[in-house]
Amino acid sequence: MNAPPLPPRIGIPPAPFDPWDKISGLDFGEDRTQAWTIRQDILHTPPEGRPALEERLLGALAKSAPTTAGRAFICEMLSLIGGTKSVPALGALLNEPASADVARQTLERIPGPEADQVLRDALGTLSGPALAGLIGTLALRGDQQVAASLPRLRDDKAQPAAVREAAKNAIQHLKRQAR
Amino acid sequence: MIPATFSRRLFLKSSALTGAALAAPLIVPSRLFGQAAPSNLITVGIVGTGNIADVHFNTLLGYPDQVRILAVSDVDQDRRSRAAAMVNASYGNSDCAAYNDFRELTRRKDIDAVFICTPDHWHALIAIDAMRHGQDVYVEKPLTLTIQEGRALADAARRYNRVAQHGTQHRSMKRFHDLAQFVRNGGLGKLERIDVAIPPNNRFCGATWSPEPVPAALDWDMWLGPSQWRPYTSIGAHYNFRFIADNAYGQVTNWGAHYLDIGQWALDMDGSGPVEVEGHGDFPTSGLFTTATRVDFTCRYANGVPMHCRTSYIGGGTVRFVGERGWLDISRNQMKASDTQLLRDMQKPGGPVELELSTNHHENFFNCIRSRARPIADVEIGHRTTTVCNLGQIAMTLGRKLRWDPAAEAFIGDDMANLLRGRPFRGPWTLL
Lengths: 179, 432
Description:
The complex is a heterodimer.
Chain A: H1 33-44, H2 50-62, H3 68-81, H4 87-94, H5 100-108, H6 113-122, H7 128-140, H8 150-155, H9 161-178
Helix pairs in contact in A: 1-3, 2-3, 3-5, 4-5, 4-6, 5-7, 6-7, 7-9
Chain B: H1 8-23, H2 30-33, E1 42-47, H3 53-60, E2 67-73, H4 77-91, E3 97-99, H5 102-106, E4 113-116, H6 123-132, E5 136-139, H7 147-159, E6 164-166, H8 174-184, E7 191-198, H9 220-224, H10 250-254, H11 256-266, E8 276-279, E9 296-300, E10 306-311, E11 318-323, E12 326-330, E13 335-337, H12 340-346, H13 361-371, H14 379-398, E14 402-405, E15 410-411, H15 415-419
Parallel strand pairs in B: 1-2, 1-4, 2-3, 4-5, 5-6, 7-10
Antiparallel strand pairs in B: 7-11, 8-9, 8-14, 9-10, 11-12, 12-13, 14-15
Protein backbone atom coordinates (compact mmCIF):
# COMPACT_ATOMS: atom_id res chain seq x y z
CA MET A 1 0.00 0.00 0.00
CA ASN A 2 1.34 3.38 -0.96
CA ALA A 3 1.84 6.04 1.72
CA PRO A 4 -0.70 8.92 1.55
CA PRO A 5 0.63 12.04 -0.19
CA LEU A 6 2.07 14.75 2.01
CA PRO A 7 -0.15 17.84 2.40
CA PRO A 8 0.95 20.76 0.25
CA ARG A 9 3.11 23.35 2.01
CA ILE A 10 1.04 26.40 2.70
CA GLY A 11 3.90 28.83 3.05
CA ILE A 12 7.52 29.21 3.96
CA PRO A 13 8.01 30.06 7.62
CA PRO A 14 9.69 33.40 8.23
CA ALA A 15 13.43 33.28 8.65
CA PRO A 16 14.77 33.54 12.18
CA PHE A 17 15.89 37.05 13.09
CA ASP A 18 17.96 38.86 15.68
CA PRO A 19 15.54 40.60 18.10
CA TRP A 20 17.75 43.68 18.14
CA ASP A 21 17.07 44.17 14.45
CA LYS A 22 13.36 44.50 15.08
CA ILE A 23 12.92 46.70 18.12
CA SER A 24 12.96 50.05 16.38
CA GLY A 25 10.04 48.84 14.26
CA LEU A 26 7.86 47.53 17.08
CA ASP A 27 4.20 48.35 16.84
CA PHE A 28 1.41 48.34 19.38
CA GLY A 29 -0.46 45.07 19.50
CA GLU A 30 2.14 43.03 17.61
CA ASP A 31 3.91 40.02 19.03
CA ARG A 32 6.36 41.44 21.57
CA THR A 33 8.40 38.31 22.18
CA GLN A 34 11.59 39.87 20.82
CA ALA A 35 11.14 42.97 22.98
CA TRP A 36 10.61 40.74 26.00
CA THR A 37 13.88 38.93 25.25
CA ILE A 38 15.79 42.19 25.11
CA ARG A 39 14.13 43.43 28.28
CA GLN A 40 15.17 40.27 30.10
CA ASP A 41 18.70 40.70 28.80
CA ILE A 42 18.81 44.25 30.13
CA LEU A 43 17.35 43.39 33.52
CA HIS A 44 19.74 40.54 34.12
CA THR A 45 23.02 41.80 32.67
CA PRO A 46 25.43 42.85 35.43
CA PRO A 47 26.64 46.46 35.46
CA GLU A 48 29.87 45.73 33.60
CA GLY A 49 27.92 44.41 30.61
CA ARG A 50 25.50 47.30 30.36
CA PRO A 51 27.60 49.73 28.28
CA ALA A 52 27.55 47.25 25.39
CA LEU A 53 23.77 46.99 25.66
CA GLU A 54 23.46 50.76 25.85
CA GLU A 55 25.46 50.96 22.64
CA ARG A 56 23.08 48.55 20.92
CA LEU A 57 20.03 50.47 22.13
CA LEU A 58 21.49 53.73 20.86
CA GLY A 59 22.17 52.03 17.54
CA ALA A 60 18.55 50.94 17.32
CA LEU A 61 17.40 54.44 18.26
CA ALA A 62 19.54 55.95 15.49
CA LYS A 63 17.77 53.93 12.80
CA SER A 64 15.66 56.10 10.54
CA ALA A 65 12.09 56.70 11.68
CA PRO A 66 11.60 54.34 14.60
CA THR A 67 7.95 53.69 15.34
CA THR A 68 6.29 55.32 18.37
CA ALA A 69 6.19 51.97 20.16
CA GLY A 70 9.77 51.13 19.16
CA ARG A 71 11.13 54.45 20.37
CA ALA A 72 9.20 54.20 23.63
CA PHE A 73 10.56 50.71 24.26
CA ILE A 74 14.16 51.70 23.52
CA CYS A 75 13.85 54.76 25.74
CA GLU A 76 12.38 52.71 28.57
CA MET A 77 15.33 50.33 28.34
CA LEU A 78 17.78 53.24 28.25
CA SER A 79 16.14 54.61 31.40
CA LEU A 80 17.31 51.42 33.13
CA ILE A 81 20.90 51.23 31.89
CA GLY A 82 21.62 54.50 30.09
CA GLY A 83 24.44 56.78 31.14
CA THR A 84 26.20 59.88 29.92
CA LYS A 85 26.68 58.33 26.50
CA SER A 86 22.91 58.35 25.93
CA VAL A 87 22.44 62.03 26.77
CA PRO A 88 23.13 63.57 23.32
CA ALA A 89 20.68 61.25 21.55
CA LEU A 90 18.04 61.82 24.19
CA GLY A 91 18.69 65.55 24.13
CA ALA A 92 17.93 65.53 20.40
CA LEU A 93 14.68 63.66 21.03
CA LEU A 94 13.83 66.16 23.75
CA ASN A 95 13.69 68.86 21.11
CA GLU A 96 11.18 66.99 18.96
CA PRO A 97 7.53 67.45 20.01
CA ALA A 98 6.65 63.84 19.17
CA SER A 99 9.40 62.40 21.35
CA ALA A 100 10.01 65.13 23.95
CA ASP A 101 8.03 63.55 26.76
CA VAL A 102 9.42 60.05 26.41
CA ALA A 103 12.96 61.47 26.17
CA ARG A 104 12.38 63.54 29.31
CA GLN A 105 11.16 60.47 31.20
CA THR A 106 14.28 58.59 30.16
CA LEU A 107 16.62 61.41 31.15
CA GLU A 108 14.88 61.65 34.52
CA ARG A 109 16.60 58.43 35.58
CA ILE A 110 20.02 59.10 34.04
CA PRO A 111 22.32 60.57 36.67
CA GLY A 112 24.95 63.22 36.12
CA PRO A 113 25.47 66.87 35.20
CA GLU A 114 25.18 66.20 31.44
CA ALA A 115 21.58 65.05 31.83
CA ASP A 116 20.92 67.93 34.26
CA GLN A 117 22.08 70.45 31.68
CA VAL A 118 20.08 69.02 28.79
CA LEU A 119 16.94 69.01 30.94
CA ARG A 120 17.57 72.55 32.16
CA ASP A 121 18.05 73.79 28.60
CA ALA A 122 14.70 72.31 27.61
CA LEU A 123 12.90 74.63 30.05
CA GLY A 124 13.16 77.29 27.38
CA THR A 125 11.91 75.16 24.53
CA LEU A 126 9.16 72.78 25.73
CA SER A 127 5.55 73.74 26.22
CA GLY A 128 2.26 72.34 27.47
CA PRO A 129 2.17 68.88 29.12
CA ALA A 130 5.79 68.19 28.14
CA LEU A 131 6.91 71.35 29.95
CA ALA A 132 4.87 70.45 33.04
CA GLY A 133 6.46 67.01 33.05
CA LEU A 134 9.91 68.54 32.64
CA ILE A 135 9.38 70.85 35.62
CA GLY A 136 8.47 67.82 37.71
CA THR A 137 11.54 65.94 36.55
CA LEU A 138 13.88 68.81 37.42
CA ALA A 139 12.33 69.08 40.88
CA LEU A 140 12.48 65.34 41.51
CA ARG A 141 16.16 65.40 40.54
CA GLY A 142 16.60 68.11 43.17
CA ASP A 143 17.99 70.62 40.67
CA GLN A 144 18.20 73.76 42.81
CA GLN A 145 19.67 75.70 39.89
CA VAL A 146 16.26 75.91 38.24
CA ALA A 147 14.50 77.18 41.36
CA ALA A 148 14.99 80.79 40.29
CA SER A 149 13.23 80.30 36.96
CA LEU A 150 10.17 78.58 38.36
CA PRO A 151 8.29 81.55 39.88
CA ARG A 152 8.10 83.11 36.43
CA LEU A 153 6.39 79.99 35.08
CA ARG A 154 4.12 79.75 38.10
CA ASP A 155 2.94 83.34 37.67
CA ASP A 156 2.68 83.40 33.88
CA LYS A 157 -1.04 83.50 33.14
CA ALA A 158 -0.32 82.64 29.50
CA GLN A 159 0.90 79.19 30.56
CA PRO A 160 -1.58 76.33 30.85
CA ALA A 161 -2.84 75.59 34.34
CA ALA A 162 -0.88 72.31 34.40
CA VAL A 163 2.40 74.16 33.86
CA ARG A 164 1.66 76.78 36.51
CA GLU A 165 0.66 74.12 38.99
CA ALA A 166 3.73 72.00 38.23
CA ALA A 167 5.91 75.07 38.83
CA LYS A 168 4.14 75.84 42.10
CA ASN A 169 4.56 72.28 43.37
CA ALA A 170 8.16 72.15 42.18
CA ILE A 171 9.02 75.33 44.09
CA GLN A 172 7.58 73.84 47.27
CA HIS A 173 9.38 70.53 46.68
CA LEU A 174 12.74 72.20 46.13
CA LYS A 175 12.24 74.39 49.20
CA ARG A 176 11.59 71.30 51.33
CA GLN A 177 14.68 69.65 49.90
CA ALA A 178 16.82 72.70 50.63
CA ARG A 179 15.86 72.74 54.31
CA MET B 1 -13.79 70.80 55.24
CA ILE B 2 -12.61 69.26 58.47
CA PRO B 3 -9.71 71.27 59.92
CA ALA B 4 -6.26 69.71 59.82
CA THR B 5 -5.77 70.22 63.53
CA PHE B 6 -8.52 69.39 65.92
CA SER B 7 -8.44 70.17 69.61
CA ARG B 8 -10.08 68.09 72.32
CA ARG B 9 -12.49 70.96 72.97
CA LEU B 10 -13.58 70.97 69.34
CA PHE B 11 -13.88 67.21 69.43
CA LEU B 12 -16.22 67.34 72.42
CA LYS B 13 -18.22 70.03 70.69
CA SER B 14 -18.35 67.79 67.63
CA SER B 15 -19.57 64.87 69.70
CA ALA B 16 -22.31 67.02 71.18
CA LEU B 17 -23.30 68.14 67.70
CA THR B 18 -23.40 64.55 66.58
CA GLY B 19 -25.79 63.69 69.35
CA ALA B 20 -27.99 66.69 68.67
CA ALA B 21 -28.11 66.04 64.96
CA LEU B 22 -29.00 62.40 65.45
CA ALA B 23 -31.95 63.48 67.59
CA ALA B 24 -33.11 66.14 65.15
CA PRO B 25 -34.79 65.47 61.83
CA LEU B 26 -32.79 68.15 60.02
CA ILE B 27 -29.33 67.29 58.69
CA VAL B 28 -26.98 70.24 58.90
CA PRO B 29 -24.12 70.01 56.42
CA SER B 30 -20.67 71.05 57.55
CA ARG B 31 -20.47 73.85 55.02
CA LEU B 32 -23.22 75.78 56.83
CA PHE B 33 -20.95 76.03 59.84
CA GLY B 34 -18.07 77.29 57.75
CA GLN B 35 -14.93 75.49 56.84
CA ALA B 36 -13.40 75.39 60.28
CA ALA B 37 -16.42 74.05 62.07
CA PRO B 38 -16.73 70.38 62.83
CA SER B 39 -19.97 68.69 61.95
CA ASN B 40 -21.49 65.30 62.13
CA LEU B 41 -22.20 65.24 58.41
CA ILE B 42 -19.19 64.23 56.34
CA THR B 43 -19.27 65.20 52.71
CA VAL B 44 -17.70 62.82 50.25
CA GLY B 45 -16.53 62.61 46.66
CA ILE B 46 -15.80 59.38 44.84
CA VAL B 47 -13.17 59.22 42.09
CA GLY B 48 -13.48 56.15 39.88
CA THR B 49 -16.95 54.64 39.70
CA GLY B 50 -16.21 51.14 38.34
CA ASN B 51 -16.07 47.73 39.94
CA ILE B 52 -14.72 48.45 43.42
CA ALA B 53 -16.62 51.70 43.85
CA ASP B 54 -19.90 49.79 43.99
CA VAL B 55 -18.97 48.53 47.45
CA HIS B 56 -18.45 52.08 48.65
CA PHE B 57 -21.60 53.45 47.08
CA ASN B 58 -23.67 50.76 48.75
CA THR B 59 -22.09 51.41 52.11
CA LEU B 60 -22.02 55.21 52.00
CA LEU B 61 -25.58 55.54 50.80
CA GLY B 62 -26.56 53.51 53.83
CA TYR B 63 -25.40 56.29 56.20
CA PRO B 64 -27.53 59.23 55.01
CA ASP B 65 -27.38 60.92 58.44
CA GLN B 66 -23.60 60.78 58.62
CA VAL B 67 -22.34 60.87 55.06
CA ARG B 68 -23.41 62.75 51.98
CA ILE B 69 -21.94 62.01 48.55
CA LEU B 70 -21.68 65.37 46.79
CA ALA B 71 -19.79 64.43 43.65
CA VAL B 72 -18.36 61.63 41.55
CA SER B 73 -15.62 61.64 38.97
CA ASP B 74 -14.84 59.18 36.21
CA VAL B 75 -13.20 59.47 32.81
CA ASP B 76 -16.00 57.34 31.38
CA GLN B 77 -19.03 59.54 30.92
CA ASP B 78 -21.45 56.61 30.94
CA ARG B 79 -20.12 55.36 34.24
CA ARG B 80 -20.06 58.70 36.00
CA SER B 81 -23.55 59.58 34.80
CA ARG B 82 -24.85 56.24 36.04
CA ALA B 83 -23.12 56.72 39.40
CA ALA B 84 -24.47 60.25 39.85
CA ALA B 85 -27.97 59.08 38.92
CA MET B 86 -27.75 56.32 41.51
CA VAL B 87 -26.69 58.79 44.21
CA ASN B 88 -29.42 61.24 43.26
CA ALA B 89 -32.05 58.52 43.25
CA SER B 90 -30.98 57.47 46.71
CA TYR B 91 -31.15 61.02 48.10
CA GLY B 92 -34.20 62.04 46.13
CA ASN B 93 -32.54 65.10 44.61
CA SER B 94 -30.28 66.06 41.72
CA ASP B 95 -27.36 67.50 43.66
CA CYS B 96 -24.61 65.01 42.89
CA ALA B 97 -22.08 66.54 40.49
CA ALA B 98 -20.30 64.39 37.91
CA TYR B 99 -16.82 65.35 36.68
CA ASN B 100 -14.52 63.98 34.02
CA ASP B 101 -11.45 65.54 35.68
CA PHE B 102 -10.92 64.58 39.33
CA ARG B 103 -9.31 67.95 39.99
CA GLU B 104 -12.69 69.63 39.85
CA LEU B 105 -13.73 67.38 42.71
CA THR B 106 -10.55 67.69 44.77
CA ARG B 107 -10.73 71.48 44.62
CA ARG B 108 -14.22 71.68 46.08
CA LYS B 109 -13.98 73.18 49.52
CA ASP B 110 -17.27 71.65 50.63
CA ILE B 111 -15.99 68.07 50.26
CA ASP B 112 -14.37 66.58 53.36
CA ALA B 113 -13.15 63.24 52.07
CA VAL B 114 -12.39 61.54 48.79
CA PHE B 115 -12.68 57.84 48.04
CA ILE B 116 -10.14 56.81 45.40
CA CYS B 117 -11.38 53.81 43.43
CA THR B 118 -9.46 54.25 40.17
CA PRO B 119 -6.94 51.87 38.62
CA ASP B 120 -3.77 51.65 40.70
CA HIS B 121 -1.59 53.88 38.50
CA TRP B 122 -3.73 56.87 39.52
CA HIS B 123 -3.94 56.34 43.29
CA ALA B 124 -0.94 58.37 44.41
CA LEU B 125 -1.55 61.43 42.24
CA ILE B 126 -5.22 61.78 43.11
CA ALA B 127 -4.66 61.17 46.82
CA ILE B 128 -1.84 63.70 47.04
CA ASP B 129 -3.85 66.27 45.12
CA ALA B 130 -6.85 65.79 47.40
CA MET B 131 -4.77 66.06 50.56
CA ARG B 132 -2.96 69.12 49.24
CA HIS B 133 -6.37 70.73 48.86
CA GLY B 134 -7.43 69.86 52.40
CA GLN B 135 -9.37 66.63 51.90
CA ASP B 136 -8.98 63.37 53.76
CA VAL B 137 -8.66 60.25 51.65
CA TYR B 138 -9.72 56.63 51.59
CA VAL B 139 -7.47 54.91 49.06
CA GLU B 140 -8.44 51.55 47.65
CA LYS B 141 -5.82 48.84 47.77
CA PRO B 142 -3.07 48.66 46.79
CA LEU B 143 -2.19 52.05 48.20
CA THR B 144 -0.07 52.87 45.15
CA LEU B 145 1.47 51.19 42.15
CA THR B 146 5.11 51.69 43.19
CA ILE B 147 7.16 52.06 46.35
CA GLN B 148 8.24 55.56 45.35
CA GLU B 149 4.63 56.65 44.98
CA GLY B 150 3.73 55.12 48.34
CA ARG B 151 6.44 57.03 50.13
CA ALA B 152 5.33 60.28 48.47
CA LEU B 153 1.72 59.64 49.45
CA ALA B 154 2.53 58.76 53.07
CA ASP B 155 4.75 61.84 53.38
CA ALA B 156 2.03 64.03 51.93
CA ALA B 157 -0.49 62.77 54.48
CA ARG B 158 1.80 63.85 57.31
CA ARG B 159 2.78 67.11 55.61
CA TYR B 160 -0.82 68.20 55.12
CA ASN B 161 -2.00 66.56 58.35
CA ARG B 162 -4.71 64.56 56.65
CA VAL B 163 -6.44 61.32 57.56
CA ALA B 164 -5.60 58.64 55.01
CA GLN B 165 -7.15 55.20 55.25
CA HIS B 166 -5.95 52.29 53.14
CA GLY B 167 -8.73 50.09 51.77
CA THR B 168 -7.49 46.89 53.41
CA GLN B 169 -10.74 46.24 55.22
CA HIS B 170 -9.52 42.99 56.79
CA ARG B 171 -8.00 45.29 59.40
CA SER B 172 -11.56 46.02 60.49
CA MET B 173 -12.68 42.39 60.70
CA LYS B 174 -12.52 40.96 64.20
CA ARG B 175 -11.32 37.55 63.05
CA PHE B 176 -8.16 39.03 61.54
CA HIS B 177 -7.64 41.27 64.53
CA ASP B 178 -7.93 38.35 66.95
CA LEU B 179 -5.52 36.26 64.96
CA ALA B 180 -2.90 38.99 64.64
CA GLN B 181 -3.15 39.65 68.38
CA PHE B 182 -2.95 35.92 69.18
CA VAL B 183 0.19 35.49 67.09
CA ARG B 184 1.80 38.56 68.59
CA ASN B 185 1.09 37.25 72.07
CA GLY B 186 2.86 33.99 71.23
CA GLY B 187 -0.36 31.95 71.00
CA LEU B 188 1.16 29.72 68.34
CA GLY B 189 4.41 29.43 70.24
CA LYS B 190 7.43 30.39 68.22
CA LEU B 191 6.26 31.48 64.79
CA GLU B 192 7.93 29.44 62.07
CA ARG B 193 6.50 30.82 58.84
CA ILE B 194 3.59 32.54 57.14
CA ASP B 195 2.06 31.15 53.94
CA VAL B 196 -0.03 33.53 51.87
CA ALA B 197 -2.09 32.06 49.04
CA ILE B 198 -3.50 34.29 46.33
CA PRO B 199 -5.82 33.30 43.48
CA PRO B 200 -4.62 33.11 39.88
CA ASN B 201 -5.39 35.79 37.32
CA ASN B 202 -9.01 35.81 36.26
CA ARG B 203 -8.50 37.40 32.83
CA PHE B 204 -6.31 36.36 29.90
CA CYS B 205 -5.72 37.69 26.40
CA GLY B 206 -4.17 36.59 23.15
CA ALA B 207 -0.61 37.10 21.95
CA THR B 208 -1.53 40.07 19.79
CA TRP B 209 -4.15 42.80 19.86
CA SER B 210 -5.38 45.61 17.63
CA PRO B 211 -5.93 49.24 18.48
CA GLU B 212 -9.61 50.23 18.41
CA PRO B 213 -11.37 53.58 18.15
CA VAL B 214 -11.75 55.21 21.55
CA PRO B 215 -15.40 55.11 22.64
CA ALA B 216 -17.03 58.53 22.52
CA ALA B 217 -17.81 58.43 26.22
CA LEU B 218 -14.24 57.67 27.30
CA ASP B 219 -11.39 60.15 27.88
CA TRP B 220 -8.62 57.67 27.09
CA ASP B 221 -5.74 60.08 27.62
CA MET B 222 -7.03 60.81 31.11
CA TRP B 223 -7.58 57.10 31.77
CA LEU B 224 -3.88 56.52 31.04
CA GLY B 225 -2.85 59.53 33.10
CA PRO B 226 0.75 59.18 34.26
CA SER B 227 1.31 55.75 32.70
CA GLN B 228 2.91 55.17 29.31
CA TRP B 229 0.80 56.00 26.30
CA ARG B 230 -0.72 53.15 24.33
CA PRO B 231 -3.60 53.10 21.88
CA TYR B 232 -6.99 52.16 23.18
CA THR B 233 -8.19 48.58 23.04
CA SER B 234 -11.21 47.30 24.89
CA ILE B 235 -9.14 44.48 26.40
CA GLY B 236 -6.79 47.03 27.94
CA ALA B 237 -9.29 49.28 29.70
CA HIS B 238 -11.42 49.36 32.83
CA TYR B 239 -11.16 46.20 34.98
CA ASN B 240 -8.42 44.67 32.83
CA PHE B 241 -5.99 47.33 34.01
CA ARG B 242 -5.12 44.86 36.74
CA PHE B 243 -3.18 42.61 34.40
CA ILE B 244 -1.07 45.28 32.70
CA ALA B 245 2.09 46.16 34.61
CA ASP B 246 1.93 49.80 33.54
CA ASN B 247 -1.26 50.02 35.58
CA ALA B 248 -1.10 47.31 38.27
CA TYR B 249 0.79 44.21 39.39
CA GLY B 250 -1.94 41.60 39.03
CA GLN B 251 -2.93 39.45 41.96
CA VAL B 252 0.29 40.33 43.80
CA THR B 253 -1.17 43.70 44.63
CA ASN B 254 -4.84 42.80 44.30
CA TRP B 255 -5.11 39.95 46.82
CA GLY B 256 -1.58 40.22 48.15
CA ALA B 257 -2.41 43.63 49.58
CA HIS B 258 -5.02 41.98 51.82
CA TYR B 259 -3.24 38.88 53.03
CA LEU B 260 0.36 40.09 53.15
CA ASP B 261 -1.09 42.93 55.23
CA ILE B 262 -2.25 40.49 57.90
CA GLY B 263 1.22 38.96 57.95
CA GLN B 264 2.75 42.38 58.48
CA TRP B 265 0.24 43.07 61.27
CA ALA B 266 0.91 39.82 63.09
CA LEU B 267 4.66 40.33 62.79
CA ASP B 268 4.44 43.85 64.27
CA MET B 269 5.97 45.20 61.07
CA ASP B 270 3.46 48.00 60.41
CA GLY B 271 6.20 50.59 60.21
CA SER B 272 8.86 48.40 58.70
CA GLY B 273 9.19 45.31 56.52
CA PRO B 274 11.30 42.35 55.50
CA VAL B 275 15.05 42.42 55.01
CA GLU B 276 15.29 39.97 52.14
CA VAL B 277 13.15 38.83 49.23
CA GLU B 278 13.48 36.32 46.43
CA GLY B 279 11.05 34.90 43.93
CA HIS B 280 10.27 33.48 40.55
CA GLY B 281 7.11 34.19 38.62
CA ASP B 282 5.76 33.16 35.24
CA PHE B 283 5.22 36.25 33.10
CA PRO B 284 3.50 36.29 29.71
CA THR B 285 6.14 36.96 27.06
CA SER B 286 3.62 38.29 24.59
CA GLY B 287 0.21 39.91 24.53
CA LEU B 288 -1.08 43.01 26.29
CA PHE B 289 -1.19 41.47 29.75
CA THR B 290 2.16 41.55 31.49
CA THR B 291 1.57 40.59 35.12
CA ALA B 292 2.60 37.24 36.55
CA THR B 293 0.33 34.28 35.82
CA ARG B 294 2.05 32.29 38.56
CA VAL B 295 3.35 34.06 41.64
CA ASP B 296 5.95 32.65 44.00
CA PHE B 297 8.06 34.79 46.29
CA THR B 298 9.36 34.78 49.83
CA CYS B 299 10.08 37.70 52.10
CA ARG B 300 12.26 37.08 55.12
CA TYR B 301 12.10 39.29 58.21
CA ALA B 302 14.90 40.25 60.57
CA ASN B 303 13.61 37.75 63.17
CA GLY B 304 14.15 34.98 60.62
CA VAL B 305 10.46 34.34 59.89
CA PRO B 306 9.73 33.87 56.18
CA MET B 307 6.47 34.95 54.56
CA HIS B 308 5.74 33.02 51.36
CA CYS B 309 3.29 34.26 48.76
CA ARG B 310 2.18 31.84 46.07
CA THR B 311 -0.55 31.42 43.52
CA SER B 312 -3.07 28.86 44.68
CA TYR B 313 -5.34 27.23 42.15
CA ILE B 314 -7.72 25.99 44.84
CA GLY B 315 -9.98 28.46 46.64
CA GLY B 316 -9.42 32.17 47.10
CA GLY B 317 -6.93 34.09 49.20
CA THR B 318 -5.81 32.85 52.60
CA VAL B 319 -3.00 33.36 55.05
CA ARG B 320 -1.69 30.56 57.22
CA PHE B 321 0.43 31.09 60.32
CA VAL B 322 2.56 28.11 61.26
CA GLY B 323 4.09 27.92 64.72
CA GLU B 324 5.29 25.48 67.35
CA ARG B 325 1.73 24.70 68.45
CA GLY B 326 0.35 24.10 64.97
CA TRP B 327 -1.22 26.29 62.31
CA LEU B 328 -4.05 28.73 61.89
CA ASP B 329 -5.49 29.42 58.48
CA ILE B 330 -7.64 32.49 57.91
CA SER B 331 -9.56 33.90 55.00
CA ARG B 332 -12.39 36.37 54.58
CA ASN B 333 -15.00 33.65 55.01
CA GLN B 334 -13.55 31.06 57.32
CA MET B 335 -10.92 30.07 59.81
CA LYS B 336 -9.28 26.70 60.23
CA ALA B 337 -6.71 25.32 62.63
CA SER B 338 -4.56 22.27 63.02
CA ASP B 339 -6.12 21.86 66.47
CA THR B 340 -9.47 23.35 67.53
CA GLN B 341 -7.92 24.19 70.89
CA LEU B 342 -6.02 26.94 69.12
CA LEU B 343 -9.30 28.54 68.05
CA ARG B 344 -10.61 28.37 71.62
CA ASP B 345 -7.37 29.82 73.00
CA MET B 346 -7.58 32.65 70.54
CA GLN B 347 -10.82 33.84 72.13
CA LYS B 348 -9.40 33.93 75.65
CA PRO B 349 -8.69 37.41 76.99
CA GLY B 350 -5.28 38.40 78.20
CA GLY B 351 -1.83 38.77 76.78
CA PRO B 352 0.41 41.80 76.88
CA VAL B 353 -0.33 42.92 73.33
CA GLU B 354 -3.76 44.45 72.80
CA LEU B 355 -4.31 45.60 69.26
CA GLU B 356 -6.75 48.33 68.42
CA LEU B 357 -10.08 46.84 67.40
CA SER B 358 -12.11 48.26 64.54
CA THR B 359 -15.13 46.39 63.28
CA ASN B 360 -16.14 48.70 60.47
CA HIS B 361 -13.57 50.15 58.09
CA HIS B 362 -15.77 53.00 56.87
CA GLU B 363 -16.89 54.00 60.35
CA ASN B 364 -13.31 53.91 61.53
CA PHE B 365 -12.40 56.31 58.72
CA PHE B 366 -15.25 58.67 59.51
CA ASN B 367 -14.52 58.62 63.25
CA CYS B 368 -10.93 59.53 62.49
CA ILE B 369 -12.02 62.35 60.21
CA ARG B 370 -13.87 63.77 63.22
CA SER B 371 -11.22 63.04 65.84
CA ARG B 372 -8.13 63.54 63.61
CA ALA B 373 -6.73 60.29 65.00
CA ARG B 374 -4.93 57.89 62.70
CA PRO B 375 -7.15 55.22 61.17
CA ILE B 376 -6.80 51.47 61.65
CA ALA B 377 -5.16 51.08 58.21
CA ASP B 378 -3.23 54.33 58.28
CA VAL B 379 -1.39 55.36 55.13
CA GLU B 380 2.02 54.39 56.52
CA ILE B 381 0.76 50.88 57.28
CA GLY B 382 -0.73 50.73 53.80
CA HIS B 383 2.51 51.89 52.26
CA ARG B 384 4.50 49.23 54.08
CA THR B 385 2.15 46.47 52.99
CA THR B 386 2.12 47.72 49.42
CA THR B 387 5.91 47.77 49.61
CA VAL B 388 5.90 44.05 50.46
CA CYS B 389 3.78 43.44 47.34
CA ASN B 390 6.24 45.48 45.32
CA LEU B 391 9.22 43.65 46.76
CA GLY B 392 7.68 40.41 45.55
CA GLN B 393 6.99 41.88 42.13
CA ILE B 394 10.56 43.19 41.78
CA ALA B 395 12.13 39.96 43.04
CA MET B 396 10.11 37.94 40.53
CA THR B 397 11.00 40.39 37.77
CA LEU B 398 14.71 40.08 38.49
CA GLY B 399 14.71 36.45 39.61
CA ARG B 400 17.45 36.97 42.15
CA LYS B 401 17.71 37.26 45.89
CA LEU B 402 17.54 40.89 47.00
CA ARG B 403 18.45 42.49 50.30
CA TRP B 404 16.11 45.24 51.50
CA ASP B 405 16.73 48.00 54.02
CA PRO B 406 13.27 48.83 55.40
CA ALA B 407 14.51 52.00 57.15
CA ALA B 408 16.07 53.48 54.02
CA GLU B 409 13.43 51.83 51.80
CA ALA B 410 16.18 50.79 49.42
CA PHE B 411 17.68 47.60 48.09
CA ILE B 412 21.23 46.98 49.21
CA GLY B 413 23.76 46.67 46.40
CA ASP B 414 21.34 46.35 43.48
CA ASP B 415 20.87 49.51 41.42
CA MET B 416 18.52 47.84 38.95
CA ALA B 417 16.19 46.74 41.73
CA ASN B 418 16.27 50.27 43.12
CA LEU B 419 15.22 51.71 39.78
CA LEU B 420 12.20 49.40 39.78
CA ARG B 421 10.94 51.04 42.98
CA GLY B 422 9.47 53.81 40.85
CA ARG B 423 8.72 54.93 37.32
CA PRO B 424 8.77 58.21 35.44
CA PHE B 425 5.39 59.83 34.79
CA ARG B 426 4.01 60.94 31.48
CA GLY B 427 3.56 64.70 31.33
CA PRO B 428 1.91 66.78 32.64
CA TRP B 429 1.71 64.51 35.70
CA THR B 430 4.41 64.73 38.34
CA LEU B 431 4.90 63.09 41.71
CA LEU B 432 5.40 66.26 43.72
